[in-house]
Amino acid sequence: MYGPVMFFTKLTLFILYYRLFNPSTVMRYLIYFGIYFNLLFYTIYFFVYIFFCPNTSKNARACGPKLKVLGVATSGVNVVSDFYLLLIPLAAISNLQLPPKRKFGLLAVFFTGFL
Looking at residue 38, what is its pLDDT? Predict the structure, then answer.
């Protein structure tokens, strides 16, 4: 169930960015790319996880190394997509017509995601 949960969590953030920033064409394409990339990856992950090792309780030793490789690949994609989610709003915030002090405050809020 990890794949669908992670996809819908990231989907909510992409939809939030879409509604919050009223994106330009480039921003809209970046958001759509993120949604489709995550949908593709987590759909593949879900089916590979189900069919790679259908019953892990009976043959846990045989499935262990296979699932370890899948876990490493998933963690790599998660790190990349998390940074992607953090970088999308930075361009939108930098284009806002706000005083520099407020703009810096908004950037600081989004940069807390790096912690």
Answer: 94
Contact 21, 27 (CB under 8 A): yes
* C-alpha torsion 9→13→14→17, nearest 10: 170
The counts of H helices and E strands in the chain are 4, 0
Residue in 17, 77, 16, 21 with CA at minimum distance from that of residue 45: 77
Q: How is the chain split among helix, strand and coil, in percent rounded to 5? A: 85, 0, 15
Classify the C-alpha dihedral 32-38-40-46 as positive or negative. negative
> Per residue in 36-89, pLDDT tens?
999 999 999 888 888 777 665 565 566 667 678 888 888 999 999 988 988 888
